[in-house]
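Comment on this:
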Amino acid sequence: MTRPYTGGCACGAIRYSIAGEPLFANHCQCRDCQRESGTGHGSYATFARAGVTVTGEAKRWDMVGDSGNVKTRAFCAECGLPVYMTFATRPDIFTIRAASLDEPARYKPQAVTYAARGHDWDHLDQALTKFETMPPG
């Protein structure tokens, strides 16, 4: 068994430990992720929810994605760092911000989602598979 993925917010008020490997890892260039990250994309790793333990209280806000489905973004009320996302239609998965990992080098992106909204100045690995929007679940 591999060692868990661990991480949390910048101040340590929120911590997580995740057993298992990511189901999907991506850079997302949708406008919501651009706004939240303050740059051209957000970087995420998605895991099976069953292997996730979270300590600390996150502040949450719901938003409606392009799919029409609600996604809940969770961040630390103390330091403001975005930490994870959950999805109303997919309670079985848990998505973390790659930058929140204790060992960010373990993050290995597989694809770019919402490439149709990417900017010329946001240079991502050209070898990654690109999806114009979100690939089918």
Summary: The CA atoms of residues 71 and 87 lie 4 Å apart. The chain has a mean pLDDT of 93.
